[in-house]
Every structure is written in structure tokens, then in C-alpha cells.
Amino acid sequence: MKFRSKIIDVGCLNHFTRVVNTVSKLTKSCVLRLTRDHVYFVLSGKVSTGGVSMWCELLQVNFFDEYQMEGVSADANEIFLEVTPENLSRALKTAQNAKSVKMKLTKKNCPCLTLAAELPSLSSVSRVVTHDIPVDVIPKRLWQDFREPQMPDFDVSIYLPPLKTMKSVVDRMKNLSNYLVMEANLKGEMNLKIETDLVSVTTHFKDLGNPPWGDDGSQTVSQSREDNLMAEVRVDIRKLQQFLTGQQVNPSKAMCNIVHKRILHLIFLHEDVSLQYFIPAVV
Predict the structure, then answer these.
(1) Helices (H) and strands (E) in the chain, counts
(2) Rounded to a whole number, what is the largest CA-CA distance in the chain?
(3) Which of 17, 44, 79, 158 has the maximal Cβ count within 10 Å?
(4) Nearest 10 degrees: CA dihedral of 269, 265, 260, 168?
(5) What is the pLDDT of residues 214-258, one digit of tens each?
(6) pLDDT: is 124 or 19 the higher one?
(7) pLDDT (tens digit, 9 = 90+) per residue, 159-206?
(8) What CA–CA distance (Å, rounded) separates 139 from 76?
């Protein structure tokens, strides 16, 4: 089992750092899945018991100038590592002006993801800062727990309003309640609502548009659903705020799927990154 990679391009390094920073804001621990073509950050929370789950997918060729990996075996050419993303984020922060950054899987006192940043130097001798980030190697028998989550059978899919606007609204609502209701329909309308014994507040958005999921043969919304019929989900407002606060991916598309009174499925799409986040409903 081997892994080594190298980033030289500063734009790629900054982009990778933003992705890791986003993941570190969403979870204290996650699984780093390495394949020949992709790098994944996975959080496999049990939605049925109130946990959030996350699936972040990167196309490695768009980030790494060099990338080599050998999985546990020829028929299982993958590596699964449990990692603390905050540790990786801190290491990358010291490498922002680096001429290159190398990452490889090493064996010290324990398995480590070793990051070596070659920093600019006034002398002819380069300075290399090395970080050893402890990881746990996940055995193959547990891999099935960290596979890509299936797209839920949603009732409504809708594009999100500008994220800064949405975050501002959620930040204000958090001061009034611990829970938020998000509702949307197939006419591109979305409402954010809180209701308590003392106050009821609703923010309306319209003309957001609905993603054309059926155009490429993928999942479609039930055709029997009336366009103006709202699907809603009540969620922990802190989990939604955490997601909106943490994201640094700057998505080209941001959307959400609502499974009525069950799941809020948020999706951010960038040219070479996709981030999915599942927040379960609360009663």
C-alpha cells in the first residue's frame, strides 16, 4: 500500500487548501479515500439517528502534478484513511507560499500522512517544512460503510439563492430559534421559516429555478407533484449554519433536494469538486 503526490502549481495548492478548509469546518474526523483518479473526503453519519453525512469528490488530475498510489491489492486498488481534516488544514496553511508540496503515506510510530512543503529561501539551500499527520488505516471489510451515498428520492430540487444572502438570513434566524424550516416547490420558490411561541419569521425567495435532473437520464421529480406544492424539512439550524459558514469552494452551482419531512440534501458543484451534505430532519 503506497501513496505519494506532489503539487507545484500555486493555484492548485490554494484550491486544494480551500477544499480541505471547508471539510475541516464540517467535521472533526472523516475518511480520506484515495483511488487512481479521485480523492474523496467522506463522513458517513447515520441520518436515521440524527447524524449528518458528507461526500466531497475531487478529480486528482486537476490538483496534483504527480500522483501515484497502490491500494491494498490488485482487485482493491484503493486506500481508506481516517484523518483529522483540521490537522491537514493547519499543515497546508504553512505551505501557502511553497514552491512545491509533497504528500505521502509513511510509517512512523503510527501510520502518517506526511506533508513536506518546500519553501522559498534567500540562500541556495531550500527550506523544507515537514508535518506528520497521524491517520488510521481502515480495513477493507469496513469500506462498504464509506461508499457514495445514493441520491435520495426527493420531492423538490431547487437552486439556492446567493450563498452570502442565505447565510446572512440563517445567521439572524439562529438568534431566534434552534430550528429552521426550509420549504420549496417546483416553481423556483423557497422559504426559510422559524416559528416559536414568541415569534414567527419567514424569508421568501422566488425565481430560483429548478435543476433539470431528468435531462441526462438521472433522477426525476414525480410528475404528479403540483408545481406550487411545497415540500418542507425542519432541521437543526446550527448544522445548516455550519455548512454555509464553512464552505470555501465557491461553487458554480449550489442546489438542494428536499425529501419531505425527512432529509435536506445540499449540493455544491465546482469545475473539479463536488460536495454533498445531508442534514436529517428533526421532529
Answers:
(1) 4, 18
(2) 71
(3) 158
(4) -80
(5) 544 345 455 456 788 999 999 999 999 989 987 777 788 999 999
(6) 19
(7) 999 999 999 999 999 999 999 999 999 999 999 999 999 899 999 999
(8) 11
- Over residues 226-236, the pLDDT tens digits come to 788 999 999 99
| CA 61 – CA 68 distance, rounded (Å) | 11
| Residue showing cell 442546489 | 255
User: Domains of the chain (ranges plus CATH)?
Assistant: 2-146 (3.70.10.10), 156-280 (3.70.10.10)
Q: Is the dihedral of CA 117, 64, 23, 83 positive or negative?
A: negative
Query: Cα 4 from chain centroid?
Result: 23
Q: Are 278 and 244 in contact (CB under 8 A)?
A: no
Helix H or strand E encompassing 14: helix 10-26
* 182 vs 201: CA distance, rounded Å: 12
- The confidence score (pLDDT) of residue 217 equals 39
Pairing type for strands 253-259 and 179-184 reads: unpaired
* N residues, the chain: 283
3-state SS, residue 211? coil
Which cell goes with 235?
A: 432541521
Q: What are the C-alpha distances in Å from 142 to residues 54, 93, 247?
A: 17, 32, 29
Distance separating alpha carbons of residues 147 and 52, to the nearest angstrom: 15
Sheet strand arrangement including 127-134: 66-70, 2-7, 100-107, 111-119, 127-134
